[in-house]
Amino acid sequence: MILLVSSNKDPASLNIANQILQRYPFQKTLGTFQNNPVYTANLNKKFVTFIRLNEASVDAQNLPENFPDAELIIFISRHSSQSGTPTLTVHPPGNFAGADFGGLPQTVSVSPATAMSNTLKMLMFYQQKLGLTDYEVSFEVTHHGPSLNVPAMFVELGSSMQQWTDSNAAYAVACATIFAIETFESKPTQKAVIGIGGTHYNKKFTQMALNGEVVFGHMISKYAVVNVDASLLKHCVERSLEQVSEVLLDWRGIRGEDKSGLLDALDVSGLVYRKI
After folding, report:
1. DSSP collapsed to 3 states, the chain
2. pLDDT tens-digit profile of 4-27?
3. pLDDT (tens digit, 9 = 90+) per residue, 97-114?
4. Which of 1, 53, 101, 191 is most deeply buried (CB count within 10 A of its CB)?
């Protein structure tokens, strides 16, 4: 079962949810979750349960306890930034340090790399098809909660109320999300990579995924490299749905003072890595 999640606290999430319910064959069930209706659909032989939370999605740490059969959890969400840049993004959740925004400290969710790359490509497709030229399509690095033992990802619409209420952009996110569901494989054969370095929106990693060169699992921004040790690297490998083949280093996007410690951690971990 694939669990699709929106939040009543999130205007973009509700906008995307409305697009999904209007355009795809979800049926309202007799059941409820947090006093909200539960919907189901069969999409390309994938059974999907669609729920609404009363809490923020980042705080849904206990969600798998209520849906133990979930093979993938997709949160449709708003994206916020100080710049207010219109964005369509996707990323895995989790924390490399503290848990200031939900989840658990130093704990990441299982990353569904192939599903995330499929979503990214479809966000780009619909950005072009719908003429959303003001919107940037990008991966975000791994950040914020929840930290789940289940493959999980966020598909987001940002970065201000103007975009959160944009029905065209919400439609793009809805279509990309459903495509990810329809093409999801619980036992993927493709290998994944971990990306380290660069900004919160790594353009190199995004372009490589859009080009079909690799699929990215967890991505660690330059501001989080200081937290990387062999144990954290091992954790990111273990928290990947796909087998991790190597680590890609955005070498120019890593602070000089962090480089030697990172290389030491990679050597201790035994992971194959290369600079890009």
Report:
1. CEEEEEECCCHHHHHHHHHHHHHCCCEEEEEEECCEEEEEEEECCEEEEEEEECCCHHHCCCHHHHCCCCCEEEEEEEEECCCCCCEEEEECCECCCCCCCCCCCCCECEECHHHHHHHHHHHHHHHHHCCCCCCEEEECCCCCCCCCCCEEEEEEEEECHHHHCCHHHHHHHHHHHHHHHHCCCCCCCCCEEEEECCCCCCHHHHHHHHCCCCCEEEEECHHHHHHCCHHHHHHHHHCECCCEEEEEECHHHCCHHHHHHHHHHHHHHCCCEEEC
2. 999 999 999 999 999 999 999 999
3. 999 999 999 999 999 999
4. 53
Phi, psi of 87 (to 5 degrees): -140, 150
To which residue do tokens 């979930």 refer?
70
pLDDT digits (tens, 9 = 90+) for 223-251: 999 999 999 999 999 999 999 999 999 99
